[in-house]
TrEMBL record:
Pfam families noted in UniProt: adh_short
Positions in coiled-coil regions: none
Family listed: Belongs to the short-chain dehydrogenases/reductases (SDR) family.
InterPro entries the UniProt entry points to: NAD(P)-bd_dom_sf, Sc_DH/Rdtase_CS, SDR_fam
Protein name: Short-chain dehydrogenase
Keyword set, alphabetical order: Oxidoreductase
GO terms, molecular function: oxidoreductase activity, acting on the CH-OH group of donors, NAD or NADP as acceptor
Originating organism: Thermaurantimonas aggregans
Oxidoreductase is among the record's keywords: yes
Amino acid sequence: MSKKIVWITGASAGFGAATALRMAKEGHTLALFARRREKLELVAQQCEALGSKTEVFILDVRNADEVSKQTKNAFESLGTPDVLVNNAGLALGLDRFDQANPEHWNQMIDTNIKGLLYMGKAAADYMVKAGRGHIVNIGSLAGKEVYPGGHVYCATKHAVEAITKGMRQDLFKFGIRVSQISPGLAETEFSIVRFEGNIDRAKAVYHGIQPLTAEDIAECIAFVIHQPPHVCIHDIVLTPTAQATSTLINRSQV
C-alpha cells in the first residue's frame, strides 16, 4: 500500500478525527484542517504517536480566503494532496420551516455547500496539475431523503450529492476519482451541535438503537481510497441495522 498525503477537514472531532487516526495507523502524511486549535492539535498529537507525519492548519471552511491561504500552506509544506476528505459540516435546529432560524440556514449553507466547494476546488487545482487524486465528500442519508424539520440541512446534503456527481464528471479525465460517503444515524458531536448543547435532546436521537460510530465511517473512507487506481466507488450509503430510512427506526434493539 503506497503512502498518501491526505487532507481532512473538520478533523478536530467526529468523522474527521476518526479518519485522521485511521489514516495515521497506516502511516499516511496528514494535513488536518479545523477551526478549534486545541482539539485539532490533540488529534494531531495522537496521529503523530501512531507514526504519522501530521500538520495542522487552522481555518473555517466558510472563509474562502482562509481556505486559499491554508491549503497553499499545506501544499508547500507537504506536497500535492493525494486525497481530500471533505468532511466539515453541521446541522443546526430541527424546527418546522416557518419557525426555523434563518441564521441556522446561513451557517449550514455556508459550511456544508460553500465550504465543501472551496476545499474541493483548492485540492482539485493541485490534483489536476498532478494528473491524479481522490476527493471524498461526506454526504448523508439526508441527501437521499427529506424529513420533517430537515428542510435546509437535507437541501445542503442533496447539494453535496449533486456537486459530487458534477465534480466526477468534470475531473475524471484528469485521473481524479470523486466519491461520497452517505451515513445514516451516527453518534458523534453532530446532534449536540444540532441542538446547541442540549445533551438530553441529542442522546434521545439514538435512544433504543446501536448507532453508527465515527470509526465505522472512517473504515468506509479507508476502503474507498484504497481501491486500485482503476476503481472509483461513487457512493457508499450506510445506516445502523435498526434504521431503514431517515424516519423508519426500530428503537427496540437495545
